[in-house]
Write a structure and sequence with these properties.
5-stranded mixed sheet, 25 strands, Neuraminidase, mainly beta, 2 helices
């Protein structure tokens, strides 16, 4: 999600190599589940809210944390523990939340409302940036970045075990499943490559995109949606459909806030509302209508957003 992280990571990797930092890593393909006590996650509810509440999770850059807040009124609840430099967050249909931890080369899972990780998924050899859950298969996809060579998407079957790697370009910074198990990714900072891993396939198909400078991809509940474009004062979300390898824009949601540059860092669509992060603000607009801002709150610079619903 966070393009700025990728630039900073290049420098940190170089420094680490010169200094001889970093211990030995488990081999790629090693078992990826390191279970911790799920009971310990349940006790962390004390003082954070109720387990039947909808919670928004925000991966912010400074300080580098994942902040939980009550979705209904924005009340801050707690921060996720056990993360070094979180970048991307996503949630599954049971309310569990996943946070990519690029500097640790892993992805941590948290129960709905819990603050300590219940599972750690190993992604050694890669830098996990973003993630997406597929409700049709219960698989978890993780978008990877690598300092050299070929990047990949790691897919964890049933959110566990050693992943299957699907190679693509070296920089993959956003990913999302649609409602049919097809996975869409954005790659290569500056060129915005857009590709699809169709369900059952083993290789990505590059898609012809009529939009410049796309930032993030999400399933909005009906269609695949992309944020991007060049208008500096009006954030835009483009709803798209595929015709073979060609992308057709079927609608555009323009997010307006006069006097402010609404250049989206990330967004999340929930029941007719889109929450979008830009600069040091979070804004709320009607979706897909867009238009005028409904409300906003001052916030840390946010790299990624997800909303977790209580398990039914």
């Amino acid at each position: 999600m966070n393009r700025g992280f990728i630039d900073a990571l290049c420098l940190s990797v170089a420094v680490a190599l010169l200094a001889g930092c970093g211990g030995s890593q488990p081999p790629i393909g090693a078992p990826g589940v390191m279970p911790q006590s799920r009971a310990s996650a349940l006790r962390t509810w004390k003082g954070t809210g109720r387990s039947d509440e909808t919670i928004m999770y925000l991966a912010v850059e400074s300080p580098a944390v994942v902040q939980m807040e009550r979705y209904s009124d924005g009340k801050k609840l707690a921060r996720l523990q056990g993360l070094t430099a979180p970048d991307g967050v996503c949630s599954d249909s049971q309310g569990n939340v996943f946070a990519t931890d690029p500097t640790e080369n892993n992805v941590k899972e948290y129960s709905h409302g819990g603050t300590v990780p219940i599972v750690t998924l190993d992604d050694s050899g890669y830098t996990p940036i973003d993630c997406s859950y597929d409700p049709t298969t219960r698989n978890l996809a993780v978008a990877n970045w690598t300092a050299s060579g070929t990047g990949s998407v790691a897919v964890y079957a049933n959110e566990q075990g050693a992943p299957t790697y699907y190679p693509y370009v070296s920089e993959i910074f956003s990913c999302s499943y649609d409602n049919k198990g097809n996975l869409f990714v954005i790659g290569e900072v500056g060129s915005s490559l857009f590709a699809e891993l169709r369900r059952g396939n083993k290789t990505f198909t590059n898609l012809s995109l009529p939009i410049s400078s796309i930032h993030n991809v999400h399933w909005d509940g009906t269609q695949i949606a992309l944020s991007g474009g060049y208008d500096p004062f009006t954030g835009a979300i483009y709803r798209i459909r595929m015709h073979g390898s060609t992308v057709k824009v079927t609608g555009t949601t323009r997010l307006q806030w006069p006097g402010h540059k609404v250049i989206l860092a990330d967004f999340f669509v929930d029941s007719g509302t889109v929450v979008a992060a830009f600069g040091s603000f979070l804004g709320y607009w009607n979706y897909p209508e867009g238009g005028s801002l409904i409300k906003h709150q001052k916030y840390h610079t946010t790299a990624s957003i997800t909303v977790s619903y209580p398990s039914k």
